[in-house]
Each structure stands twice: as structure tokens, then as C-alpha cells.
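so the lab meeting is tmrw and i was supposed to have these ready like two days ago... anyway. pasting both below. for each one the top line is the aa sequence and the line under it is the C-alpha cells. i havent really looked at them closely yet so no promises
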Amino acid sequence: MKPELCILFYYAFNIASLAIPFAFIAFTIQRFCSLLYHTKHFFKTKRWIALCIASQWFVEFIISLPFVFRTSRKCTNEFWMTVYTLVTAVVVPSLVNFILNSMIFGHVRSSTRRVQPQNPSAWASRITTQQENRQQAPKISRREISLLRQMIFMFAMFIGGWSPVFIVDIFLQLVNVNTMITAVTILFGEYVSNRALVYDENIRPNITRRNMAKPRWATVRRLSSVKEILT
């Protein structure tokens, strides 16, 4: 293979390895900003979504540039290249997703935590406060929380399925490993990815139906209590 084609091949390989993990990062960043900065109209627009997608691909192209400027002219997958792919495709996305999702769920938990008052005057004060802050309160539905959990689960399945491929690729640079092991890890990654897609197709309609059909008994009881207080 010509050196130019070899460089292009490994450059494209690294970009393909980063595509799905960085897509999860883009989704997490989009949800993170739309929830924590809900008062900013920009984070609710399609322009913000398009910016996240464009930034994802731009970062992938930039991160993969070391494969273009490598000094070796041999068409081989060098040791530093395998380590670099593992770090950029597994370690960094996992760390970023963990931090952002922890902050998202921490924000959701703190925003939904309410202290139940014990007397009518406290109820009236609470109603007034809620009416004043209704416009500023973030609207976080159960469906959004379910989708976030679903995305985290799918990301974990992807990382768990494809990490062995990158790890075995590193060991191939150090010791002689049976090529069957590489084939098995690739098949395992494909299987896990397919199972994640099947899970996504099955769980997404259930999330929608469950949130549409589930009665809001807590809201009904709260309104009944308020009515009794006012009367």
C-alpha cells in the first residue's frame, strides 16, 4: 500500500473509532446545557443542536491529525497509535460522559427535591413562590430522565463491547496473540452494538407510552389539598 493511502487509512480508522463515542458526548453536552442553562433561549434552538453535531465531527478530525503527521513511513499500526485510539475512543469519552451525566442528575435531583410544608400558611406561601418562579424553573419531564438513562446504558454497552478490540490491538504490538482472539472481540463488539440498537428500538416506544398513560396522582392529590385549604 502506498504511504499516502496508508496514512489516509489509519486516519479514517481513528475517525471511525471516535464517531459513536463522540456522538454520545455531543448528546450529553446538548442535554447538559439545555437543562442547566434553561433560561438561555439559544440552547433550545436547532442551531445549538447543529453546532453540537458540527463540533463533534470537527473535534474528531482534529484529534485524529497525529495519524497524518506520524514520522514512520511503514504502513503498520504502531504501538503509540493503538494506545492513542484507546485513550481517545474509550477513556476520554467515558470520563467526559461520567462527569457531565453526574452533574445532570445532580441538578435534576436538587431541582426536584421539595420540602413538604406541614401547615396551611406554608402551603399558601409555597403556592405563591411557585407561581413567581414558574417561568424560571426548568421543565424536566420523566421522559427526559428515562432517555438520559437509556443513553447512558447504550454508551456503557458500546464501551464494554468495543474496549476489548482496542485492548487486544495494543497487546498485538507487544506479544504474539492468536488472530482468532481479535476476530472474537470484533464479533463481540458487533453483537453488543446490535443488542443496544434492539434495546433502543424496544424501550423508546415504552417510555413514550408509559409517560403518556401514567396518571399524575401526585398532582391530583396536591390540587385537592390546596382546594381544601382555600375553602
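ok protien two:
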Amino acid sequence: MAEPRRTSLLERSAGLWSRAYPRRWRFAYGEDLVGTLVDLAGPDAATVRLRDGLSVLRAGWSLRLREHPPLLPWLAYRLFERRLPARYRSWVMDDLLGWSYAARGMAVGLMVVVGGIALVGVLFPAVRQLIPPDPVVFLAIVSGPLVVQMLFGARYWARKAWRRHVGGWVPPELRRRSERLDAQTELALYRASLRQGRGGWSIGGGATRG
């Protein structure tokens, strides 16, 4: 869900204010919002009016807070990939497209591996002899495969999680280059998927069964 490049200072200012809204919302409606802010600022303005910018900031963060899941379901999703209720689908979409998804997966995996090794070491003292005494070496050995997975498999795991938690249309960032379409078609498919709901559209634009 890449955003278009802004040309003028006023457009860049409007684009900056629009980032108060979630990524997925900006992809669908960001251009309309930027155009509105530019029109409100007037032809001679260099930046968006502060009043309009603060209004966008308030509305965008209100939307983010309304869409965020409660603490316990959020923890279950974060730690165990538990599916959230359908009303948090939009929040999940933004989370899977964020830069932190792969890093979070690596951190959780690292905690699970280290915790498991520590537990085995407590239950079976003889195993401790196999653990390197230097903590730096130990962490390097444990985290190495996870780092490789994050660097080379992040898109695959995010795409898999998207199909599990969201379904339907898959963003171009998570697909192979050969499966990507032009920007206008992608936007039309995305908006159609929002109207149809979960699993309502395939990437080719045809209806699918949810």
C-alpha cells in the first residue's frame, strides 16, 4: 500500500497530516483527503492550515483508537497468532503491513526459544553443558536462524498471516511481482473488498466464497 510521491510543499504538508490515519485508510482515501486539505488551504498557501491539520490529527487518531483491540485479545494475537474478532479486521490489516510485523515475529520466536532452552536446562541439568557459557555467543546461535527468516521470509509469513486473519484481496507488497497489478486496479479491488467484507474478492476481481 505505497503512497504516491508528493510534488509541492503544500501537498507534502497535507500528506504528512494525513498520516494520522491508518495506512489502509490512507491507501483507500488518502488522495481525497490530501486534495481536500489543499483546496481548503487556498492557491497561495505553502502549508496546510493548522486548524485543518489538527482536525485531521484528531479524527485520524480517534479512528486508530476505536479500531485497536482490547488488551487480552491483543496479547493473544501478538504472542500466539490468535485470530481477532471480525470488527478488528482493519486494525489487523495495518499491523500486517507495518514494518514491525517481521521484527515482532522474530522477537516472539526468540523469547520462546530462549525460554524453552532455559526450562529444559532447569529440568535436565545435564543439558546445561551443551549451552555456550558466553551469553553473546548463545544469543547469536539462537537468533541467527530467526534473523535469516526475518530478512528473507518476512513477506511470505506476512502473506500467510494475511490470508489467515483477513482473507480476500492481498496487498501488492505481500505478493510476488508477477501477481501485482497497476495502481488504479489495485485500489479498485481494495475498495471492493471493503464493501464485500471478508473473503469477498479474489485478486483477479472475481467473487469468491468466504
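from a quick look at the 2nd one: Confidence is low (pLDDT under 50) at residues 198-210. Residues 1-67 form one domain. will dig more after coffe
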